[in-house]
Request: fold
Amino acid sequence: MNVEYLTDIILLLSAAVIIVPLFQFTRLGAIPGFLVAGIVLGPSGFGYIENNENIAGFAELGVVLLLFVIGVEINPLRLWRMKGLVLGLGTLQVLITGGLLTILIHELFGLSWNISILTGFALALSSTAFVLQLLSDRKMLSSGYGRPAVSVLLLQDLAVVPLLALVSLMAAPDFTIAGNFFLALGEGFAILVIIIIAARYILNPLLKILARFGSPEIFTATALLLVLGAAQSMEYVGLSMPMGAFIAGLLIADSSYRHQILAEV
Reply:
């Protein structure tokens, strides 16, 4: 193992052990504490950690596992009842916030409409990992405003696909909406369907077979394969890896093996 990489991880964990409890004591939450720890040790702070690529990959894996755990803890039936909020409230939030920010950026900074649209709608999106972790820490995922927040975050993650297609559309004059924009949307929908079918007709029977062997190592490997496979599938079509892990968590939330998988992950 790279000794420098291991040293960076030890430094980050040491800073987190000191800073995060202070933030929790002041009721600011753990996430801001981790952010401050990273800023203090990173190039913007004392510069103890310079190799950001390794740490970024390590952090993204942590976010993937976090969103998987949160997905497992959410009731899928209750989430399905929220489909009106996802499509209605989520769409309104993205369109209204993105539209207002687009106009504001264009008028204040004099940027072209193309750049203003991309920047405005990019800024309209939130950090799913940050918000869901905050709601989970405060036991608010199922609260009156926690459910609408989750629905908006899900729609925002889905909105990434057309935004990425829009980037390519604006970069290439001969790029056609019919040939690429809707293709990206179709790929994203197809991956979702494949994950759902695989979870229902393949995953649950497979988990039942593996449970009979009684090998925790095999079960752990299967759980990690599920999380990383779903995350990589979403990354392939332009969606976020954490969203893939979140959906995978939702699909096994009603499984009789959910607690065992959570323990392994």
User: Anything to note?
Assistant: DSSP finds twelve helices and no strands in the chain. Residues 51-264 form a domain with the Na+/H+ antiporter like fold fold (CATH 1.20.1530.20). The longest helix spans residues 177-213.
